[in-house]
Backbone:
């Protein structure tokens, strides 16, 4: 079995590499450390590539830019993957406004390049596309909410499980990142529906884990653990710190890709996040880190929220659980935090 992983040095990509390498598959990574171009040296994922190279048996990686169509076509013609896990992206909501063309070229055109290379040279392959809940823009904020002591909560009991895949994706404010990812999401669906390619579209909530290179503009939980352990200040962006996110550990994301690869449904869309069980507000996460790690976080509340940011976002996992009953969340939020704190302490 040949697996091709884009963004292989990043959080989700590296978890996919480890997973399929452990299953004795051949794994080819595609990553050009563009994260250091987006976020500077602290955002670089090269350290993770070095870990992968020392830990794995059947992995090699190519320093290829997914914007480079010809090189990708040649690579797919030679390698002919059975599974493509597409995780390379400009991942930040806020950063995209500073680099609008680069954001679109990586997220939208880069995805198109990979889909077309798959269609031309590996049409039988399963293609898992890592999308985002930002495709819904700020439409989830239209649900009625109530304010509790430490979090915003859905006011209507019918919304308890969170946001499902039928939430609308147009006529909402996405941020440029959300718009470029929406283009990629829809085109990946289309390669499934129109061409019959085995594409699966996974709309992530907050994806996290100890190998996240968190920075202020992306990877909130990882960055929060970083500032806690390193004794740096932290600013919360608006909503009184009561904004709710659902956190999923990267290995649970990869297991969903595997379940899809075993039983692909071309063009299907799935929300994937920690769901109700792993949902917490920023204030609650701060409290948990203080309780688990014994740190005191020096945080302040900024008045202004990030444009288009969700107030309460919980991924409804019902469709994923229904289509893949063997899949479920394995790693709790407390375990995620404990692992992240330990990893940060060892840096
Ligand atoms: N982390 C989250 O909270 C989250 C939430 C929802 C969706 N997602 C999506 O999941 C996917 C993976 O996210 P992640 O957190 O692992 O990101 P990440 O930033 O940790 O990893 C992405 C990797 O892609 C590489 N890359 C970027 N541009 C590239 C290019 N042009 N060519 C080759 N490689 C390139 C980067 O160097 C990096 O190593 C992305 O599509 C992201 O939008 C992430």
Residues:
């Amino acid at each position: 079995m040949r697996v091709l992983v884009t963004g292989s040095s990043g959080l989700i990509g590296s978890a996919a590499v480890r997973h399929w390498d452990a299953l004795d598959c051949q794994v080819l990574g595609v990553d050009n450390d563009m994260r250091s171009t987006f976020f500077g040296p602290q955002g670089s994922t090269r350290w993770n590539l070095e870990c992968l190279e020392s830990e794995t048996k059947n992995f090699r990686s190519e320093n290829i830019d997914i914007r480079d169509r010809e090189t990708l076509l040649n690579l797919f013609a030679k390698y002919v993957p059975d599974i493509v896990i597409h995780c390379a992206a400009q991942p930040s909501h806020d950063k995209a406004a500073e680099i609008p063309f680069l954001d679109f070229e990586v997220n939208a055109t880069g995805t198109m390049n990979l889909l077309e290379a798959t269609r031309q040279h590996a049409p039988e392959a399963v293609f898992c596309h890592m999308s985002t809940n930002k495709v819904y823009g700020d439409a989830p904020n239209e649900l009625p909410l109530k304010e509790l002591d430490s979090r915003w909560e859905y006011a209507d009991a019918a919304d308890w499980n969170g946001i499902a895949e039928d939430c609308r994706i147009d006529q909402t404010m996405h941020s440029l990142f959300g718009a470029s990812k929406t283009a990629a999401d829809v085109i990946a669906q289309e390669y499934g529906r129109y061409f019959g390619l085995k594409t699966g579209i996974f709309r992530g909530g907050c994806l996290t884990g100890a190998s996240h290179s968190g920075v202020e503009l992306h990877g909130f939980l990882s960055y929060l653990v970083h500032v806690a352990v390193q004794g740096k200040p932290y600013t919360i962006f608006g909503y009184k710190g009561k904004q709710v996110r659902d956190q999923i550990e990267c290995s649970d994301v990869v297991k969903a890709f595997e379940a899809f690869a075993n039983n692909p449904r071309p063009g299907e869309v799935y929300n994937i996040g920690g769901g109700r069980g792993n949902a917490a507000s920023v204030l609650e996460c701060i409290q948990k880190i203080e309780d688990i790690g014994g740190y005191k976080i020096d945080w302040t509340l900024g008045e202004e929220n990030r444009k288009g940011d969700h107030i309460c976002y919980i991924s409804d996992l019902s469709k994923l659980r229904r289509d893949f009953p063997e899949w479920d969340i394995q790693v709790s939020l407390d375990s995620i935090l404990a692992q992240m704190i330990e990893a940060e302490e060892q840096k």
Observations:
- The chain has eleven helices and 14 strands.
